[in-house]
Structure formats: structure tokens, C-alpha cells
Amino acid sequence: MAQDVYTVIGKRLPRLESEEKVSGTARYLPDLQIPGTLYGKILRSPYPHARVLRVDTSRAERLPGVRAAVTGNDTKGIRLCTFSRFDNKPPLAEERVRFIGDEVAAVAADSESIAEEALDLIEVDYEELPPVFDPLEAMKPGAVGIHEEGNVAYHRSWMYGDIESALKESDYIFEDQFRTQAQAHCALETHGCIAYFDQTGTLTVWITTQWIHPTRRILSETLGLPYSKVRVITANIGGSFGRSGGIEPIEIIATFLSKKTRRPVRIIHSHDEQFTSGRSRYPVLIDIKTGVKKDGTLLARKVRMVTDNGAYNNFGIAVTLGIGSKCTYLWGVPNVAFDADVVYTNKVYGGAFRGFGNGQITFAIESQMETIARKLGMDMKDLCLKNVNYPGQRTCMGHKITSCGLKECIEQATAAAGWEAKRGKGRNRGIGMASVMHIGAGIRNLYGDCNLSEAFIKMNNDGTIDLASGAMDTGQGSNTVLAQVAAEELGIPMRDINMITGDTSTTPQCLGAWGSREAFIAGNAVKLAAREVRLRLLEEAGKIIKSDPEDLILKDRQIYRKTNLQESVLSIAHVANACYNAGRPLFGRGIYDDPSGLGIDPKTGHGGPVTYSFGTQVAEVEVDPRTGKVKVLNFVAAHDLGKALNAMMAEGQIEGGVIQGLGYALFEDLVMEEGLVLNPNLQDYRIPYVNDIPKIVSILVESQDPEGPYGAKGLGEPPIIPTAAAIANAIYDAVGVRIKTLPITPEKILKALKEKEEGSKKK
Amino acid sequence: MAQDVYTVIGKRLPRLESEEKVSGTARYLPDLQIPGTLYGKILRSPYPHARVLRVDTSRAERLPGVRAAVTGNDTKGIRLCTFSRFDNKPPLAEERVRFIGDEVAAVAADSESIAEEALDLIEVDYEELPPVFDPLEAMKPGAVGIHEEGNVAYHRSWMYGDIESALKESDYIFEDQFRTQAQAHCALETHGCIAYFDQTGTLTVWITTQWIHPTRRILSETLGLPYSKVRVITANIGGSFGRSGGIEPIEIIATFLSKKTRRPVRIIHSHDEQFTSGRSRYPVLIDIKTGVKKDGTLLARKVRMVTDNGAYNNFGIAVTLGIGSKCTYLWGVPNVAFDADVVYTNKVYGGAFRGFGNGQITFAIESQMETIARKLGMDMKDLCLKNVNYPGQRTCMGHKITSCGLKECIEQATAAAGWEAKRGKGRNRGIGMASVMHIGAGIRNLYGDCNLSEAFIKMNNDGTIDLASGAMDTGQGSNTVLAQVAAEELGIPMRDINMITGDTSTTPQCLGAWGSREAFIAGNAVKLAAREVRLRLLEEAGKIIKSDPEDLILKDRQIYRKTNLQESVLSIAHVANACYNAGRPLFGRGIYDDPSGLGIDPKTGHGGPVTYSFGTQVAEVEVDPRTGKVKVLNFVAAHDLGKALNAMMAEGQIEGGVIQGLGYALFEDLVMEEGLVLNPNLQDYRIPYVNDIPKIVSILVESQDPEGPYGAKGLGEPPIIPTAAAIANAIYDAVGVRIKTLPITPEKILKALKEKEEGSKKK
Asked: Would you list the DSSP string of A148-194?
């Protein structure tokens, strides 16, 4: 790796906002104080399924301090937009409620306590309807219909290659069923917004979002306002993990309350609401059938799945289609068939979650891979290497892999974990591995037909810059990485960069933080903008000192001749100031649009991702056979991120992903009984505690992506994806039981151990 | 005037923010709520002149709720920057205080009342020094020295042409002495700031300023911070009139208090402080000697003046030099000599004020013109027309006039006022006129060597735009005018424009609101940016419909073929969205730099203004000879503004200027006795009341400036400039007395009437 050619790129730099966050002075949405703000509260359905006969807010509106109330009558016809024609969630119930927590009415008042009190004065007449909670039940003929169109929100079936022939050619066929649970994002800051529909008819929404520009588009199109009258602003964001793509009902509700009062209206989810109002990770049921040759060559993969959509469409269809693509990714299986139903139930609806379905399908694929390896008498590692993805590979779906360091990830992760030495040693200790292939730079078609980011750089008279990007730093550190890119290109220190983000009015287009796209897409945009400034700067410097700009370089705020790096010829500030005085201040604009097409689907014509990220994780666990308790002892995660723009932050992403994946594997579960969430708080909803977290060794594999900035590609999502399978495989290695449903609780292990014991006794 | 070729330009449109202002929801600086804010208060000198022996803040700092205190020790060496090497005002006194109100120490506390209380606990030992209040006294040898260098801050003397020969050639020589007073800006919002030096070392200053970008430069250079660490933000501004160019001590004081506490610190002037802390209009003493031929041809003008600088340099030298230039402007006198002293006194120091000295010198020139006309037996109107400035004229100083509608102003103002019919009719009624020539687009060299503005336009997917400009709307309406320019160029309604201004981070360079420059300079920048977007838009549309872009036009959000204006071929939104989807969102950047040089001073090499604005005002008054009270009955103001971009707003500028000029003429006076301001509030400081304001007829003369946007040039300052002379001349016409000192109080009129009576008795 040619790491030392860079001055700022690749360095272990702290985040720009670290000091503010550590000192407690960083501002989050709840810290914002907009004069005249009212407080909104929402009345929610206590029933999982009911007809709404009457909503009467008149008593509530008469309570002193209450300024307005809204019901489904006010927002009639509006559906929460995810850029899909299937969107069907009204911000406030119209004729029916479909889950416990469904929004029915809302008030805005002078204080939170008045608003809370007012909710009790809203009269609602419900007519209860029979609910259905299990997606398989919901699919049965005669099941109660949750939506007009029936309970199957979407069905999709396709095949690449010839699955039946491939299964026939296979020496072995494996069939397994896996089930995953609803996981909550558990960002420490709950979702909130302040909406202000001012006297000029301009709507400003302060919001916790991952996407400012798409949110502006959503609000504009949903409310019939020109973009010029919609401004979306964020503060620091206390974590996101997919939960803040698109809008929640609160943004629409707050807007309508503000429209009535012409005052800013603030609604912030309580933790209870955060767990119960929607958009957790989709639970899925996956049947996976795999055909393999004796030598371990994977020939066929057939996936049948049911997605538990919950009460409304959000990203359920997109996630399911994403899983469909991802079936074809890992290990490059040449023949793949996919069949899926997305099914309504009277439960909290799902939403986007870090990995966007890949965590679910990878749990299935990689758990089954272990079973295959053992059956074939191969080491899992060898089976993986046998089928490993490689640069230049084209998947059966037509997606093309460019850079690929998966082989290195497998080798380095297993080496670091002591794979050979620890494998199959028994004594309730075990080691397991799992890998991931994921999109490395988002994908086209969130809306329209591009996957772009734009950046503006103004150079100030003193050679420092203002860098505007529409990318969103949701806590993952994109601002720091983008500043590093600009610093590298312009030969200036990080301190000289003023990052402008988080406001649609003042930043150029960008689709925001999703699909692990920001380092790659926004990074490339910033690089192009900075290069434009650099070229102009060198050109102007060349004029001043009568030199070919090609012979000059920028370093440490100075301009040097390449032939003499000891003595600078001009300062950048000097040139910047001269350009200003000459009436041509320095400015650069960069637009980067994913060139895609690389992986165009020949059938649909849809572009595939421009690049993919890879990784292999190895978990070492100890299982207590008396309690069923799993302790993760050691963890190694090797990830191909193309190039580490900031190794410290990359390690942070890996560690965070692994911990969240560990929670998914062992603890987290949004438990619902008859549609009621039983654990809607951080005490009962169990995330990993400090004691649960092993030492995590992060290995950064740099495959140098040909299209990524400095070779980088996305790392936001991959680290959470293979963790559950790695742990499940390690458990199998430790105690010989295969748990196919998440989370892998002590009860499930004890039960499996008992069954295993009984089975062996029978023999 | 080819007015109807435009769709938006020239229309009488309300301001973008009217509804917010009228409904009381517009946000001003005091409305901003920054979490954790502390309140700062300043201890000021009670003495006009004293040595500061000791400042002890320790008792104040021990008061519960006080978070920090600062003194001159903290800010040592800092001087308030006006981009002049003569700047010498420390934000907090170092060894001496020089006027009553001079800043000595400051505290930041949890509340305003605690801060107030803490001031009483600060101990200061002063050693009183003899003060000097009169500039003529201060110039005398042996006068007590206010600054090290003596009491003459600056002396300047120059001559263009041959003044002595010209005086010899003259048939008549007129010599008069005029004196003007200190006028307060009386913006309804006092000056304030919130400074926050955060954990990342970034200084954000929310401020009432006319110049965000120069203020960023000042703060950056003064505090030794890179520009990237300084952000200047404004809210709505409740009037400015020159008072908010550059910074006040409070910005530096609040910054240092914030640096100590790492919390935002807010300091807002009380009305008392606003009147007493500095930067009112400079009082001057003008001796003017004019040589004239019998036929009225003006041959020579010799001006000797003394500027009462007050205790420190602010814009006193610049204003004095401005007056020097302006001596050569009006009536194009071929031989002009100028000699001036800027003199310190132990009084509130002056600052920039709408007109920047032109109000003072025009009062002298135009009062004397009347005297000349009467002496020559000419009508003032004819004398003016005889010497009228004209397009293509080059002044003796080398400045070149391009567009000039002064002749039309004289003719139209006098016609509308019924000049001939009302002139010299006696019965204590009179009519008087006065004219103005002023810079119409600022001037180069505020700092560096340019007079530029830059604008960015992002076109959104729906064809609406975000328009970023560094221009400052201080209440004069520049945002509305800039939006009109963009709307005109792009064929979109005003509603489709989102104006981004008032923040250095998010707007491009602009020198801000001063010198009547924004319509012209920033307007041209916006026009260029919009044109770039338009060209790109037409080019893309041409590709879509296979047409030459030259054959297409933009109108009403649509694209039409020039040959068929009935049926649109595409919507702008369609093209904008297509460009976005194609990965090239529409964007335009405009930079306009005053081409100057047109009026380069051959001696100094300094550029003169790129254009000039003109005007003529006619006042009709009634004087009560028993009380001396003047009632302005009617007022006509004809102003050459090149082209009215928004006639309603132009009339607003004229009316506002005339009213402020009427106050200057008759009422306003910051009265000081032994350095103490006696009327530091809006009750005692008399501005015009509704009853004092006559009907004002505004006439817009459109001379079509060749360089201005759509022919426009500046109108911000001119309307205040000739008002006092017009009223003084009308008073002469009414009762035959010439008052040469402002304001023209009843006492002065009575005294003059008495003297006149005595004089005529003597005869």
C-alpha cells in the first residue's frame, strides 16, 4: 500500500467534532431553541386492529395552553414517502388503525405537560377488528385483511441461471430454514423534529435525518410546496443506523400543527415511542436450498422468504428486493432463484436498518455454509476460499465486481484469530467464521436515475476553505473524512477547513448517508471540487512566479516547485488573496455520479452498484452448557474497505458494527405479544453491555478500488452483517448445536443441547 | 423606458419578508436563543478623559452567577478595525479613557441583572485629565493631547486645476462657513452580538452588521484565527444606515468573554449605549469659497474643513477624504482645492452614516448655491442647469460620469413642485431646492483591490432555485431585488426563489451593504449567475427537443420556442430534473467586480466609482415668525437611479432618506455638554414624528446606466443627502434668513430673524 504518499489521507485523525461531543457542548436537535416553539404530542392506537369511528379533539382544544389539534382529516391522502408506489402509511389514521402505536391524533401546546394532558381529552371511538400477527397466518386464505389489497403487500420471484439443472448436477443439496427477529436501532438520541411553517409560507424542518436532500424532496412533493419553500436542517445526530432515511409521521404532524398555529412545533419521540412507532429491522423467514459439488463448488442457491412487513409498507419491499440481489452476491453462486412475499401483520412496521436485509440473508447463507463444510468434511475456510469472490467476477445477476479483497480478508482474519489452532477443540469453546459482500457505494435509483453527490469549495483570502456538502454526518464521521480529502488535495491542514453540511439551502445535492455510499460518492465529489481549486490555484501561482503549473505542488499551506521541496515559492494565502483582489475568488465545484452500468441487470436494465465491500469475521465463544449462556471471547474482523481514509475511524465503524451484530446475534429482540411491544425501553430491550463485548481486532484490507477516492469504498454497513453467523458458527463449533433463529438465547441453546443429547441417547 | 420588456424587473413587488415583519414573526438578533448563553455587560468610563490606574474585577467575579470578566489586559493591542492603518480604538481601555462611555471592563453572567450588579463591584481607579471638547481648541498649540501623536489625527490638502487663477478669473467670490452636528442612526434595533468560541476553536458571531464577509475578515485578522474558524451570521436587521459597517467593541468583548467561559456570550446595546458608545455622524466645520462668473459658471471651489473625530479614529479619515472627493462632484467645478484636519476631542467618536460625508458637504455646497443664485439674480434652478453634470463628463479629479439624469431630476422635481409658481411668494412660505451627486455602486479599496460580489444559484429538481449571495439585507430590501433579478433571468416567479444570505459560511464573497452598491454590484453578480443557469438550461432543453437553444426562451416556469409563445415545449422543472438525473444538476456562479478605472485618479492611481447617482429635491416650507418653527408642507424628490428594479421599494428608499434628512435639517442633534450626551434616548433625541412628515412625491428618473443591471444604480444613500439644504433654502425663500448650522432650530431662526430685523433697522 502506497500509504505514505499521502499527507492527510490514511492518517488516524480524531473527528472534527470530538471535542464538542466529549465536552457535552455539541448541539443535538433537542438543544435547539426556536422562539415561540409549541410542543406536540401524539395520541396512538391502543388496539392492534380497529376501525376508527370518531375522533373528537374539541375538548382537548379547549384546554388552556393547547393551540391546535390535528387528525387524519387534516392529513387525508398523505402517505409517508419512501419513493415507492407502494407507500401506504398515513401520518394519522384515516379510517383504521393497524398496530398498537398507530398515530390517531395530535396536539400542539405551550408545554409538553399540557400537550400530554390534552391527549387524555381526545375522544376516539374504535370498533375492534380481529388482528393477525403471524405473516404465515396472514397469508392464509380467509385471514382478516389488513389492507384493501389483501395481506401480501408484494410478491417477487425470479431466477438467474438454471436452478433446477444445477440442483440436479449437485452432489449434495442442503435445505435449511432460518428466522430473524425485529431489531431496534437504539440510537441514543430518539427521533425528533421541529417544523415551522412561517408567515412567508416557507416550511423549515429541523430533523434527525440521514438524508437532507431526499427529505426536502419528500416534504416538497408530499405537501405540494416548491423546493424553494422547504428547508431541511439537522443538528448533530446521536446515531442513526438506517432509522432516519425518509420521514416519520411526526414531521408531517408537526408541519400541520405549525400550519394551523404559524408557530414552530416540536415533537420528539419518547424512548417508548421510538420502540413502538415503527421502522425496526424486518423479521424474515428464509428457506434456503443449496446445491454443492463434492469438491465444495457451490452450484445452486434457491431462496424462498417471507418478510414480516408489519402494519404498513415502508422499506419492506426494497429490503426484500435487496435480499434478492444479495442472494447472488456471496460466493458467486452461478444459478440462483428467489421467491419472496412481503406480508402485512398488525404489528409495528419495519424500516431500513444498517445492512438493508444483508444481515438477515447472510445469517442464513453463512450458517448454512458451515453445515455444508462439515458435511463435505472441509474446513469452512477452505470452502470459502474455494468459492471466493474475485476481482473481475460477474455474478449470475450481471453485477460486476471490480476491487475485491475477500480472499485476503479470509486469510488475514483466520490467521489473526488462530483459526487452525482453535478450531474444533471442544471444551465448550469454539470458533466460527462468516463473510460479507455488500454494496460499497450505494446504488442508483433511490429516486430518479443517479447516485450523485456534489460539493462546493470556496477558498477564502487566507487560503482556508469553506466546504459545502449535502452528505450527512450521522455520527459515522463523514465530515471528517470529507475534510481529509480536501486537505489532501489542497495541501492545507484540517484546521483550515470549515465544513458546511446539514442544511438543504446551503449545501448542494447529495443523496445522503445510506448504502455505505458517503466516503465513496461524496468523497469523490469533494475530491473533484478540491482538484478544481487546486488547478486554478496552481495556474494563478504559475502566472505570478512565471512557472508551468505542472511544476508546482501544494504542501503545508505553501506552494513549492517540485524541484525544491525545501523552500516554498509562495503561500497559498498569497495566491488566494491575489485571486480575490483580481476579481476571481477561487472556487471549485465537484459532481460525482456513480458510473454504475458496470453491473447492469440485463433483464431489468437497472444499474448495479459501482463497487462492493467485503469482509470476514471470526468469533471465538465459550458456551456454558448448564445455562446456555454464550460469552464471546475474542473477535477478529477483517474488512476490505478499498483504502482506509482514516484508519482510526474505520476501526470505529468495525467495532460499532460488530457490537451491534453481537446484539443481533445474542440479545436484541423487539418482543411483541398480541401486537404489544413488551420491551419498549433500554432497560428491557437488551443491547450488549460493556461486559458482553470482547476484544475486537480490526484488520483493514486495502484492495484499492479503481473508482473510489484514493481507492476507498464504503464500510458503514458491512461490519454488522456477518457477525451473527460467525457467532452461530462458533457456537456450533463449541457445543455442536445449530441455532437457526435469532437471537441465539440461552433458552434456545439449552433446548438444542437437550434435543441433541436426547438424539444421541436414541442412537 | 423599455419597461414592459421585463416580467419581474421594475414591478412594484412587496418585500419577501414583509409578511413576517408585519406579523411580528420576523426574527431579529435579540430573538435568537443559543443554548447556554451568558449575558455580558460593560462598565464604561464616567470621565471624558482620565488615566486608568487600576481595574480590579475580582469582587465582581466572586458574585454568584458571574462567569467571567475582562479588562483591557485581556484585549491588549487589539484595535477596532476599519481597514485603516489609523485604527486606534481599543475594545477595552488600556491606560486611558478618552470619552464618557469608553469601555473599561466587562462581565458575563447567567442573567442580565447579575451582570448589571457585577458592574458595581468592579473597582476602577482613575486619574482625571483635562478634557478638550472643541476641535478648534484641540488644534491649538498647548492643548491637552488626547493621543500620543497629538490631536490632529490626519491632515490632507490637495488641489485639482489651478484654484488661485480660477478665483482671480471669477467675477464673484462667495465665502461661507457651515457647521453640522452629530446625528444618531436611530435604527430601531440597537446593535448587538452573540459570540460563541466553541470547543473546536471556532468563533461564531451572530451580529447586526451590513457586511458579513468584511466582518469575518476583521475578526479573523484581529484575533489571529483562520477564516475557516470564524463564522459571521446575521438575523433580520432593524435598520442600519451605516452604523453597522465594521465591528463595535462588543464583538471583541463578547468573544473574549466566550473564550474564557466557552459559552455563548450575548451583549446587546441599551438605547443609552447606542447613543453614547460611538459612531454617530461626524460633525464638521466647513469653510467654502466659491468663484463664479457673472453668467453663473462655477470656476473654483475651495474647501477648508475640520472634522470632529471624537475620541478615536473610526471612519473619520475616510469620511473626510470622501468629502474631499465629493467637493469635486456636484456641478463639475473645474478647479477645486481641499484642505482638511481630522481632530480628536474627548467626545463620542463618529462613524459611518448614510451618505458618508456627502450630507455634510452638500448642505454647504447647495446652501451656498442659493446665495450665489440670488446674488447673480438668477433662479437657483437656472444656475444649476447652467452647471449641470452630464453623461461623459470628467471631473477635475479625473472621475468619469457615465449615465447622468441630473438635468431631468432638476426639471422634473421643480415642475412637480410648482417651482416657478411658488418661488419667492413670501407670506412666510418658501420653496427651496438642492441636488446630489453620489457614488452609485460603492468603490474599490474597502480592503484589497476590488469591489466585488459573487452569487451562487443551485436549481432544484422542480425548477425552483436556492440563491446564495453575500449581500446584506439590512432592511433596505436587497434580498427582494436580487430575487427579482434571478426571477427575471430564469422566467420563474418570486415564490420559486429561496434566498440564502446573512452567513459567511454559506454565501460567497460580497463586500456587503455600503456605498449604495448592492443593487448594482450584487445585482450584476446574481444576473451573471442566473444567466449561466439559463444558458445551461436552454442548452439542455435544446438537446431534448432538438432545437437551437437560441430559439428558446424561459417564461412562467416554461420553455417556449420564440416562434410560439402560446404553447410551451417543456417545463423548466422537466429539464432541471433531467439534468439532475443525468448527473449534472444545474448551477450558476456569477462574479461581478466593479470595472472601475473609469474614474482613476491620475495622481493617486486610485479607482473612482464605476457610476454615480443623482437627485434633486424641492422642499416647500412654512415658517412661523413668532416661534421660529418650520413646517415642511410639501416635498418632491426626483432621483436618477438608472432603472427602478422595484419602484415601490425605490420610493420607500426615497421617503426614508428624505425623512431622515428632514430630521438632520430640523431636529436631530446628539447634544453633548462637557462630553456627556444629554439626550441618549428616543424621547429626548428628537427624530421626525408622523406630524412632521410632509407628503413626499417621489420621481424615479431612469437614465439607464450602461453597466448596471438592467440599467440600475444605487439609491440607498442619495435621498438623505440634499434634504437639509433644500429645507434651508426654502426657509430662506420663506423668511429671508440663512441658517448655516444644523439643525435649523426655532431658536436659530428667531435669532436670525431678530438680527435681520435689527440689520434692516440699522439700514
From this structure: TT-SEEEEEEEEES-HHHHHHH-SEEEEEEEE--------SSPPEEE
ipTM of the complex: 0.94
Do the Cβ atoms of A228 and B201 come within 8 Å?
no
Give the tens place of pLDDT for each residue, A208-243.
999 999 999 999 999 999 999 999 999 999 999 999
User: What is the reported pLDDT for B2?
Assistant: 44
Identify whether the C-beta of residue B463 lies closer than 8 Å to the C-beta of residue B630: no
Residues 199-228 of A with CB under 8 A from B: 199-202, 217, 220, 226-228
Listed residue (A739, A551, A670) closest to A282, CA to CA: A670
Q: What is the pLDDT of residue A18?
A: 92
Is the pLDDT at B465 greater than 80? The verdict is: yes
Q: Which residue is associated with the grid cell 480660477?
A: B166
Restricting to A residues 562-621, those with a Cβ less than 8 Å away from any Cβ of B are 577, 580-585, 587, 589, 591, 593
CB B485 within 8 A of CB B530: yes
Taking Cα atoms as reference points, which of A275, A271, A111 lies closest to residue A189?
A271
Q: Which residues of B touch A496 (CB under 8 A)?
A: 226, 228
- For chain A, list residues with pLDDT below 50: 1-3, 598-599, 605
Say how many C-beta atoms besides its own lie within 10 A of residue B85's C-beta.
7
For B348-367, the pLDDT digits (tens) are 999 999 999 999 999 999 99
pTM: 0.95
Q: Are B397 and B199 in contact (CB under 8 A)?
A: no
Helix B249-261 to helix B212-223 angle (10° resolution) is: 60
Q: Does A425 touch chain B (CB under 8 A)?
A: no
Q: Which domains does chain B have, with CATH numbers?
A: 3-26+452-593 (3.30.365.10), 32-129+188-239+244-276 (3.90.1170.50), 133-184+280-388 (3.30.365.10), 398-441+603-763 (3.30.365.10)
A58 touches chain B (CB under 8 A): no
Q: B interface mutation test: which of A227, A497, A586 has the most B CBs within 10 A?
A: A227
Per-residue pLDDT reduced to its tens digit, A690-704: 999 999 999 999 999
Which residue among B16, B32, B509 places its CB closest to the CB of A200?
Answer: B16
Task: Tell me which chain B residue has its CA closest to the CA of residue A501.
Answer: B506
Measured distance CA(B640)–CA(B401) in Å, rounded? 13
CB contact under 8 A, A33 and B36: no
What pLDDT score does B600 carry?
56
